Amino acid sequence: MLSLQIDDARLSDLEPWHAGQLAGLFRAHGADFYDWLPWEAFEDVEAARGFLDSFVKGRGEGTRRLYGIWVDDELVGGTLFPSINARSRVAEAGVFLAASARGRGIVTRAVAAMLDWAFVERGLHRVEWRCAPGNHASRRVAERLGFTHEGTLREVFPVRDERQDLEVWSLLAREWNGVPQQS
User: Do 163 and 155 contact (CB within 8 A), yes or no?
Assistant: First the structure.
């Protein structure tokens, strides 16, 4: 189990017993999240529990990870590896964060800790970051952490009833300089 303190925020594994908190987060902020995420309906506790169960199973298989971000014991977001391919040593990273917790560098430092784990502990070769071109906050995280924009996949990302373009960013193990110092 991972638990990491980042200033006033705590990053730790999201577990099935957090389903009520996750459902509450999506009830409060889902409209904002759903502009950029391909999944919906986690306002319901059982749906949230099913989502969390899939990540617990993936964590056991080494194919997925999901961490919650808490500020003052309130779940405000999450960071995740929706896919980890041990054979190719490639993973995808992603995030979701309540607007009230943005702009404090929490996501950048949380993802940096994940990258450290991926490259140093897990021995991955490449981590990808994917986001819609209009998701400027997500793009800034990728840029701050040294990811390279490789291109844009056209209309590949279904969000609600609309297909969005998807930018692909990557960072290779040899490019990773470690967790950035706070400024």
Answer: yes
Q: Residue 146: count other Cβ atoms within 10 Å of its Cβ.
A: 15
Place of tokens 């990053």: 11
Mean pLDDT by 10 residues, the chain (183 residues): 75 94 90 70 88 94 95 92 96 92 88 92 96 91 95 87 91 87 54
Beta strands in the chain (DSSP E): 3-6, 9-13, 65-71, 74-85, 90-97, 126-131, 148-159, 162-172
How far apart are the C-alpha atoms of 153 and 160, rounded to whole Å? 18
Which residue type sits at 10?
R
pLDDT of residue 157: 79
Letter string b/e over residues 73-108, b meaning 16 or more CB atoms within 10 A of that residue's CB: eebbbbbbbbebeeeebbbbbbbbbbeebeeebbbb
Question: Given its phi and psi angles, is residue 7 left (phi above 0), alpha (psi -120 to 50 degrees) or beta?
Answer: left
- The pLDDT, as a whole number, for residue 30 is 75
The span from the CA of 55 to the CA of 49, in Å, is 10
Residue 140: name the closest of 149, 152, 153 by CA.
Answer: 149
